[in-house]
Amino acid sequence: MLNALGQPQTVLLLGGTSDIALATARAWARSGDLHVVLAARPGPRRDAAVADLEHAGATVDPVDFEAEALDTHAALVAGIDRDIDVALVAFGVLGDEERAWQDHDAAVHLATVNYTAPVSVGVCLAERLTRQGHGVIVALSSVAGERVRRSNFVYGSSKAGMDGFYLGLGEALRGTGARVLVVRPGFVRTKMTQGRDPAPLSVDADDVAAAIVRGVANGDDLIWVPAALRGVMSGLRHVPRALFRKLPL
Amino acid sequence: MSEPAPPTEFRGWGRTAPSVGRPVSATAAEVAEVVRRAGPRGLIARGLGRSYGDPAQNAGGDVLLPLPTGIGEVAADGTVRVSAGTSLHDLMAALLPRGRFVPVTPGTRYVTVGGAIACDVHGKSHHVTGSFGRQVVDLDLVVGSGETRTVGPDRDPDLFWATVGGLGLTGVITAATLRTIPVETAYAEVTTQRLANLDEVMREMREGDRNFTYSVAWIDTLARGAALGRSVLSRGEHATRDRVGARDPLAPPRPPRVTVPVTPPVNLVTPLGVRAFNEAWFRKAPRHRTGEIQSLAQFFHPLDGIAGWNRAYGPRGFVQYQLVVPDGEDDALVRILERIAAARLPCFLAVLKRFGPGNDGPLSFPLAGWTLAYDVPAHPDLVPLLAWLDEQVVAAGGRVYLAKDSRLHPALLPAMYPRLDEFRAVRERVDPGRVFRSDLARRLEI
User: Fold this and answer.
1) Distances in Å between the alpha carbon of B72 and those of A41, B29, B94, B303?
2) Min distance B248 CA to chain A CA atoms (Å)
3) What is the strand order of the sheet A178-185 is part of?
C-alpha cells in the first residue's frame, strides 16, 4: 500500500533498466522497505540493475519483459502476486531521428515501443489497479511530445500519443482508486541521451526521480521536470509554425 | 441486505492514503450472509471513520458500514446490551438521563462500539479503568465461516482478547454487553494546572494522577530549552449534584455547533498560526484552578464541537503519531520530545498521558507508562523524523497505536507487538480463508 506519506511498498518497473526508473526506485528504497518487480529484457544490464537496487536496500524480483511482445503484457501484469502500489512505465527508445522517418522498420519499431506498447501495458495496469482499488501508474512522457518539432518528430509524436493516452487514462480511472501521474521531463542526462548536447534546463535522472517521488506523494496527475519547463512549453506551444521552424530546437 | 453500492473512496480521519472499496449496508442478522459473499479482496467492518489511518478501508474489497443503532435497557448489574453500530454519542445520550455513563471514552464520542472494541480505545481514565476492552462483558462476533461466536473474558478468552484491539481482523462484531457506571450529573469537576516544563508535568502526573479518575495533559511541542514540554494538565472527576447549581443535571451531549463544510485547498495548520495558538493556549490556562464545572462533552470531547475539524489540514491531510514507552523509560520520552521540538512542525494538538497496566489483547496498544499523541500535517519530509521516533520507541520497548497509524513499516511490527504471532494463530483458527482484510492489514502484513 501507498502510506500516508506517499511511500510505496511494491513497485513495478516496466523498462526496469532505465536510468530514471532505477533512480526512482533507489529514492524510495532509501526511505523505507521496498519490493521491486523489475520487468526488463534478461541479460547483463538487468542483472546490474537488480544488483544496484539490492545494494540500495530493496528486495528485487526480476521478470522478463519485451515491450514489442504485446501479447505477453497481460500475463506479466496478472502474474504479480502482491498489490502493485506504483507501476512505472519507463521504457522507450530515442532512435536515430533521420532514420526514424525514412526507414520503415525503424519508424514502426519506434512507434511500437514508444506508443503501442505503453498503451498495451496501460490497459493491463488499469484493469489490475481498478480491481485492487488503489495504485498509481507513473507514465514517463517527454516535453518532446508537447510541441512536436522537426528535429525528432517521430519520437515526439510517439510521446505525444502516449502522453495523451495516459492523461486520458487518468481521467477514465477517476473514482476507481487507481491514479495516473504523467511525467514530462525535458532533456535528461542518461545513457539514452549520451553523446547528445544537453538542452537548456537539462536535468539528471535523480532530479526526475525526486520529482516523481514528490508527485506520487502529492497525488499529482501531471508534472514537468524541471518545473520551469511548464511555462517554457506553454509558450512554445503557441509559437506560429513559421517562427517555430526557425528556432534552434 | 441491500445490493452493494457503487465503489466508494474511503479514508481515515487523517484524510491520507484513500482507497476504493464497495460499501455494504446490513443489519446484524444479515452480517453472516455478507461475510459468506465477500469476494477475493475480503471484507472489513467500518465504524464512523475516526481511525486516523487505514484500518477501516479495504481497497478493492467490501466495506461493511455501521450496523443500525440499538441500545437495550440498563440491567440491574449496570450492564447494557448494544448493537456494535451504536455510536458512543447515542449511547451517552441514552445513558445520561438514566444516570449512567460509559467508564471509558476516547477523545471523540463519534465512534461506534464495534470500532471502540476493535481499536481497544482508551481515554483519560486509563490509569484507573483500563481501556475499552476491560469494560466489555461479552460480544457477538461473526467469524470467517459466517457463524456467530459469543465471546468474553471467560468464554473463549483467546478469541475475545484477539478481537479487543484486533482491528476487525478476527470478524465482524455485531453486538456487545458493556459495563456502565453511575453518575449524578452530566458534568465534570475539573482541576487545571499550568506546568512550566516536562519535568514538572511528569512529576505532577506521576505523583498526583492517583487522586483523579481522569487525567490528560496538553503539551506545547514547539517549546524548547527550559520550557521543553510545558503543559496544561487537566484532571477531573464526575461532578456531584450539589456542585452543578441550576444546570440540568443529566443533560445529554449536544450535536456539533460548528462545521468545517469543505476541505480548503491549502493546509490551514501553519507553523506561524500554531505557534501563536500554542502560546495563547498556554498563557490563557490558569496556573492552578480547582472546582471548575465543565459539561462531560467539553471535558472529554472538546473537538467534537467542530464537525469535520480534520479538514482544516487541507487536501494532504495529517498524521497522528501516538506512542507509548513503558515506565522507567522516561529518558526516551524526553529525547523524543526534544527531537519533536527541534523539528518545529506545526502541532496544536499533542497530549501526554500516563497509562495503567495493559490487558491481554495481543494487539491492544496501552501498556503501563507514558503515551504521547502528536498531530502534524502529512508531508513526505516527515519520513525521517517518524522513522527516528519508531527506532526510539522500539528501543525503549514501546509501540505505536495502530488505530492512529498510517505509515509504519511492517518490519517493526513484531518488535512493537511481540505477541503478534498469538494474534495470527487465533485468526488462523477463526478466519483461515482470510475474509477479513483491510488496507492496514495489507500494509503491515498482519
Assistant:
1) 66, 17, 10, 28
2) 44
3) A59-64, A35-40, A10-14, A86-89, A135-140, A178-185, A222-225
Among candidates B113, B175, B116, which has minimal Cα distance to B142? B175
Pick the catalytic residue: A65, A91, A155, A224? Answer: A155
Query: Could you tell me the end-to-end alpha-carbon distance of chain B, in angstroms, rounded to an integer?
Result: 30
On chain B, the residues whose CB falls within 8 A of the CB of A214 are 380
Distance CA A119, CA A161 (A): 9
- For A97, the grid coordinates are 531521428
CB contact under 8 A, B54 and A83: no
Residue A12, φ and ψ in degrees, nearest 5 = -105, 120
- Using a CB-CB cut-off of 8 Å, the residues of chain A touching B41 are 131-133
DSSP letter at B175 equals: E
B386 contacts in A (CB within 8 Å)? 5
Classified as helix, coil or strand, A141 is: coil
> Cα–Cα distance between B440 and B252 in angstroms, integer?
35
- How does pLDDT run across A122-165, given as a tens digit for each residue? 999 999 999 999 999 999 999 999 999 999 999 999 999 999 99
Contact call for A5 and B21, based on CB within 8 A:
no
C-alpha distance from A54 to closest chain B C-alpha (Å): 17
B224–A contact, CB cutoff 8 A:
no
Distance in angstroms (rounded) separating the CA atoms of residues B333 and B199? 11
Which DSSP symbol is given to B111?
S
The residues in B 38-57 lying below 8 A from A, measured between CB atoms, are 41, 53-54
Question: How many angstroms separate the CA atoms of B356 and A123, rounded?
Answer: 54
Helix, strand, coil percentages in chain B from 3-state DSSP, rounded to 5 = 30, 25, 45
Long-range pairs, B92-96, Cβ under 8 A, ≥24: B92/B252, B92/B253, B92/B296, B93/B252, B93/B253, B95/B180, B96/B183, B96/B186, B96/B250, B96/B251, B96/B252, B96/B253, B96/B296
ipTM score of complex: 0.92
Pairwise CB contact (< 8 Å): A133 & B21: yes
**Beta bridge pairs of residue B353:** B371
Write out pLDDT tens, residues B92-151: 999 999 999 999 999 999 999 999 999 999 999 999 999 999 999 999 999 999 999 999
Chain B touched by A6 (CB under 8 Å): yes
Q: Is B442 left (phi over 0), alpha (psi -120 to 50) or beta?
A: alpha
Residue A166 annotated in active site: no
